Amino acid sequence: MKKFLPIVIVGILVLGGLGVSAIKNPTQILQTNDQYDMIIIAPIEFYIPVQRLINHKNSHNIQTVYKSTQSIYREYNGRDKAEEIKLFIKDALEDWGISYVLLMGGRKHQFPNWHIPVRYVNLDDGTQRYTTFFSDLYYADIYKNGDQFEDWDSNGDDVFAEWGKDQLDLHLDVYVGRLPCRSFLEAWIVVQKIINYENTAYGQDWFNKLVLVAGDTFPDSPGYEGEETCDFAAEYMDDFEKVKLYTSTGNLTGPEDVTNVINEGCGFLFTRGKGGQDRLRVNLPEGEEIIVFHNKYVRNYKNKNMYPVCILGECIHAKIDVTILNIFKYLKGEPNYYAQDCIFECLAWRLVNKNNGGAIAVLTNTNICYGDSGDANGNGIPDDAENFGGKLAVEVLRLYGEEEIKILGEIHFQTVENYVTNFPVSSNKFHCKSVLEWILIGDPSLRIGGYD
Predict the structure, then answer these.
(1) What angle separates helix 4-30 from helix 47-59, to the nearest 10 degrees?
(2) Using CA atoms, how far apart are residues 92 and 90, in angstroms rounded to an integer?
(3) HEC states along 390-431?
(4) Which of 45, 280, 372, 420 has the most CB atoms around its CB within 10 Å?
């Protein structure tokens, strides 16, 4: 640590002194090539960790190029910064043949402005909360009607993805993941985690472990819906040791049970309970609700270089627009701001940016999602695993275990494509919202289990 800090400080000073035009040069040199696999979009402030990640990816034959947000905003003329980034992605897809887009940037520290903006969509599902929420699928849904640019504003009123007024394509065209880094330090940490994971995870015993965390999601309904969904999802992972932390069996009584298992290392961690911006809750058999994940518990995770891919099937874990400064909007009574949004960071990002612990990536939801109970059609599959957020979560393990897809962004992409193909997302707002809020917090080119 004593060596790291001076290097970082000097690096920041050098970058600041060079200015925008000097930092552009490495990008311009790379752009003379004809073909890339991945584009990393990030502010110039993150150039040093971005270049480390580029070098690592290139060493594994993932040809990667960097584009600064500052250069995008200079070169493109969209309605706003989000559209300018999307227009660049379209050009990168057509000119360079990219497959992966890594958005490296979130809020600027705790301020309301963004390193890389989100696209807010307008869908009121009647839950009396959050009539708008953001969707990173915006950056992956490039075309409509074959080759037309999909701007998510079919009626041209500058209100994006407005339910009942705008028609969305929702068939994705590129693999997109976000690392919502708010600072240089966070960018450095997550890049180091990715490099260590991909270089060391392969063939390790800890990876062949699937941890399942659940309880009684709906105490007023018969059965243990969360556990039933976990059991069904686990059937796709034949080669994995299953560690079931369930309230019905007494193996899950509090956060210490989760901490102990995470610290032993695992390849995947799958949950199905009740969500929150900074927490995950489950119900005991008696009906009492307990918190088993919370931002404050993440500091106890000591699983260095044994990071799981987390599939958190609950609500709002990836609300990366939370910030302490939201308190001013909340106190003024602005719509779509609640006390729970006035926090330092969301749970998904806390897990991924935890230094020497936590997760390598999280697939989860940016807003309120839905669950189900029972088996109405009598097919032996829990309804919670066949619809909405439960379906998307289960599909991750099916794609990995049954179809043997090993690249994280490809799995996320295919969960959406399969849902859009098989559910009425254009006519049912609950199905539409289920895919819009499904997000990958992580590197879309990540090789799950590392390289051999």
Answers:
(1) 70
(2) 5
(3) HHHHHHHHHHHHCCCCCEHHHHHHHHHHHHHHHCCCCCCHHH
(4) 280
Q: Which DSSP string corresponds to 76-123?
A: ---SSHHHHHHHHHHHHHHHH---EEEEE--BSTTSSSBSS---EEE-
Query: How far is Cα 283 from Cα 139, in angstroms, rounded to an integer?
Result: 36
* Rounded CA separation 292/296 (Å): 11
**Tokens in use for 381?**
């599959």
Residues forming a β-bridge with 41: 67, 103
Q: pLDDT truncated to tens, each residue of the chain (452 aa)?
A: 333 333 333 333 333 322 332 233 333 334 444 589 999 999 999 999 999 999 999 999 999 999 999 999 999 999 999 999 999 999 999 999 999 999 999 999 999 999 999 999 999 999 889 999 999 999 999 999 989 999 999 999 999 999 999 999 999 999 999 999 999 999 999 999 999 999 999 999 999 999 999 999 998 889 899 999 999 999 999 999 999 999 999 999 999 999 999 999 999 999 999 999 999 999 999 889 999 999 999 999 999 999 999 999 999 999 999 999 999 999 999 999 999 999 999 999 999 999 999 999 999 999 999 999 999 999 999 999 999 999 999 999 999 999 999 999 999 999 999 999 999 999 999 999 999 999 999 999 999 999 99
Residues 394, 229 contacting (CB under 8 angstroms): yes
Spatial distance between the Cα atoms of 145 and 148, rounded to a whole number of angstroms: 6
Alpha helices (H) in 125-254, listed in sequence order: 184-200, 225-234
**Secondary structure of residue 252 in the 3-state scheme:** coil
Q: Which two tokens stand for residue 178?
A: 């976000």
Q: Retrieve residue 439's tokens.
A: 């997000």
CATH for the stretch 4-149: 3.40.50.10390
Tokens of 13: 């000073």
pTM as predicted = 0.93
CATH number of 201-404: 3.40.50.1460
CATH 3.40.50.1460 residue spans of the chain: 201-404
- Contact of 243 with 266, CB cutoff 8 Å: yes
CA quadruple 97, 119, 328, 330: dihedral sign: negative
- 280 forms beta bridges with 293
